[in-house]
């Protein structure tokens, strides 16, 4: 698959041949759904459990006599009504982690990249911009028609000024090539890859 390469200012900068084994896979909704669900569930933290009356360390000795006090007939300091007692009907520990075959995860990422290659993929030379100021950067994005949510996958290196300026723009996110994932790719309207990132993604699957 041949794609045009452009500079950050929108000017043409030649062509690049994308590997069809990575960017030409037919997307399947069931695979993408499985990978996105796996990814989001594994992002969730473990729900912390409360200590119930069997978990707290309190005496089991009967602390008042059964009759004659005018009070209730208590026999356990771990009861929820006492300070230091267990929590009644508290939250239980819940694990959200899921397992997913590595081949399915890799296939899902290929399908996400392929879906963007069909619609919403832009390959640029690099992310070096002489005037890396927020206002200048926004002007370049508007000129290039990069509106909505834009995800930059930049390989291993990116201009610090560009990164700081891009943080100030709503809907703009950046990831290294090693951090490319299905959920973040699909939730953005436009995917912008540097030539360095393309090489690293293809090596990731072919190496």
From TrEMBL:
Pfam families referenced in this protein's UniProt entry, alphabetically: Ribosomal_L4
One Gene Ontology cellular component annotation held by this UniProt entry: ribosome
InterPro entries: Ribosomal_uL4 (IPR002136), Ribosomal_uL4-like (IPR013005), Ribosomal_uL4_dom_sf (IPR023574)
Keywords linked to the UniProt accession: Ribonucleoprotein, Ribosomal protein, RNA-binding, rRNA-binding
Record region (Disordered): 65-93
Keyword Transcription regulation: no
The keyword Ribosomal protein belongs to this UniProt entry's keyword annotation: yes
SUPFAM superfamilies (UniProt xref): Ribosomal protein L4
Family from the record: Belongs to the universal ribosomal protein uL4 family.
Function field: Forms part of the polypeptide exit tunnel. One of the primary rRNA binding proteins, this protein initially binds near the 5'-end of the 23S rRNA. It is important during the early stages of 50S assembly. It makes multiple contacts with different domains of the 23S rRNA in the assembled 50S subunit and ribosome.
Assembly notes: Part of the 50S ribosomal subunit.
Protein name in UniProt: Large ribosomal subunit protein uL4
């Amino acid at each position: 698959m041949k794609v045009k390469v452009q500079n950050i200012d929108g000017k043409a900068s030649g062509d690049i041949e994308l590997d069809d084994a990575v960017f030409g896979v037919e997307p399947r909704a069931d695979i993408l759904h499985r990978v996105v669900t796996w990814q989001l569930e594994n992002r969730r933290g473990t729900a912390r459990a409360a200590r119930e009356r069997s978990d707290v360390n309190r005496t089991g000795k009967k602390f008042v006599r059964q009759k004659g006090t005018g009070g209730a007939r208590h026999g356990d300091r771990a009861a929820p009504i006492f300070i230091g007692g267990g929590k009644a009907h508290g939250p239980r520990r819940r694990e959200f982690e899921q397992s997913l075959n590595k081949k399915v995860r890799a296939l899902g990422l290929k399908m996400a990249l392929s879906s963007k290659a069909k619609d919403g993929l832009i390959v640029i030379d690099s992310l070096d911009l002489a005037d890396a100021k927020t206002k200048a950067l926004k002007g370049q994005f508007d000129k290039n028609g990069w509106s909505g949510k834009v995800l930059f996958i930049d390989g291993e290196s990116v201009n610090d000024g560009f990164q700081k300026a891009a943080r100030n723009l709503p809907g703009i996110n950046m990831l290294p090539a090693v951090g490319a994932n299905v959920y973040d790719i699909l939730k953005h309207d436009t995917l912008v890859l540097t030539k360095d990132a393309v090489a690293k993604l293809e090596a990731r699957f072919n190496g």
